[in-house]
Design a protein that fits this description.
alpha+beta; four-stranded antiparallel sheet; about 30% strand
């Protein structure tokens, strides 16, 4: 799917991740696989950006947009 996205859009999304996001290697909290290895996943997250912007990212590359609520404010998060 990424091969179909214009380089300008990819560059814009890279800037969003750099400024408002993160790239993480996350360990699953499950049992080891049949081969004895621990499963991991690569996670791209953008948060604290306007919902409309995150919806644009979802439209272009997929993923989901969720609302995170804490004591002080609401945050929109794409992952």
């Amino acid at each position: 799917m990424l091969a179909e996205i214009l380089p300008e859009k990819l560059a814009y999304m890279a800037g969003l991740i750099d400024g408002e996001g993160s790239i993480c290697l996350v360990k699953y909290h499950t049992r080891r696989t049949a081969h004895g290895s621990t499963p991991f996943r690569l996670e791209f997250v953008i948060s604290s950006a306007p919902k409309q912007l995150l919806s644009w990212v979802r439209k272009n590359v997929g993923g989901s947009v969720d609302r995170i609520v804490n004591k002080h404010h609401h945050i929109w998060r794409w992952s």
